[in-house]
Design a protein that fits this description.
The protein has about 425 residues and is of the alpha/beta class. The strands form five sheets. The chain has a five-stranded mixed sheet. It has a three-stranded antiparallel sheet with strand order 11-14-13. Strands 1-12 form a two-stranded parallel ribbon. Helix 2 packs antiparallel against helix 11, helix 4 crosses helix 10 and helix 11 packs across helix 15. It starts with a helix and ends with a helix. The structure holds D-serine (DSN).
Length: about 425
Amino acid sequence: MNDIERILSIVRNQNKWRRFECLNLVASENVMSPLAERVYLSDFMSRYNEHNAESHYQGTKYAMEIERVVKELFSRRFGTSKVEIRPLSGGIANLIVYRSILKPGDTFISPKLTAGGHVSSTRYGVAGVLSLSEVPMFFDHEEMTIDVDKTIELINNVKPKLIMFGRSVILFPEPIKEIREAIDPKIKIIYDAAHVFGLIWGRKFQDPFAEGADIVTTSTHKTFPGPQGGAIIARDDLDDKTWRKIEFTTFPGVVYNHHIHRFPALGITALEMLEFGEKYAEQVIRNARTLAETLFDYGFNVLCPHKEFTASHQVLLDVRELGGGRKIAEKLEENNIIVTKIALPWDSDKDATGNPSGIRIGVQEMTRWGMKEEEMKYIGELFHEALNENKSVRDKVIEFRKDFREIKYCFEVEKYEDYLDGLLGGF
Ligand code: DSN
């Protein structure tokens, strides 16, 4: 096999394995719709468009237009003109917001890493890079939510300029409203919605702006099933000075070439989510609860049985008694079941990359492949056979996936064949 064939075969192997032969249950991943994938590959992938009000490049009339159209779609959903879609990831969106509001040495309050806080909001990530000092919110291990009373007391003592909500391990909505009402209105509330953005878009989780958040940062590829990237959305009445700072920190501060080729796919995904988002989000949550209940009935230590296990796309299992998160995630991978090991609140930061207590399961992708409650029950059975009975279920998984090869909650590509034929035809 020569080097070209080697590269082509790696891509073919990836496509065959992860797309059609696995149960993809990583809570931070998803698949784009066929139409979004078709428009992802275009001439935009080769172009630059550095701009604030005006582009500093020539040849950018369509690049400016597509960015404007996608921003309008986000504005339509969130009722604000303050939308920034150039950040290349959720972490970079966080970097931009932190840098726009805080100075090196400033303190802010965020969820700790092992309570699901994103690494960008900790000393190991962006916050550390910017020399910010993070103070962790208090967390209630039993309820798997932020401890409101203790956190209010903390905020009132520390008096930060900014607090950050939102987590990578998130079963239940954040207590934005309770905390907003009890703290200095000048403190900016940011919500890193990356994990639950699709559920928020589909109006089935929480409404951060109605509850008092000033700014939402997000990625665009987790429960929101778009191309990989980031975004910042602020409430319309956020002061213009802060918003301008965010725009200028984006460019020329942090993001130069913002990878324009993402935008057509982001626009198609936004339209699909406007049309199908509510049904999709509802099914995601129903599926997560069904899977959690099934696993619980098979004897797994699923977190929060007293709260119907979850209100998001995630299910959390404490697998310490089975050997720990790393061991279980690896064993599941041998069976083509892909999850992530995850630190739970009682773990140390070091455990997060070692052998933490938990595994995190996300059902959003398999929901898009058309799975519903019945399929979740079968997935629970496969976990039981693989982990409790130590049987190989790899062949069963491959067989099971054969019936789920078409993405739902999206537009039909066939309707747009005339446009799509001509898309790259002139190359
Ligand atoms: N850390 C990723 C996750 O939640 O899987 C997101 O950046």
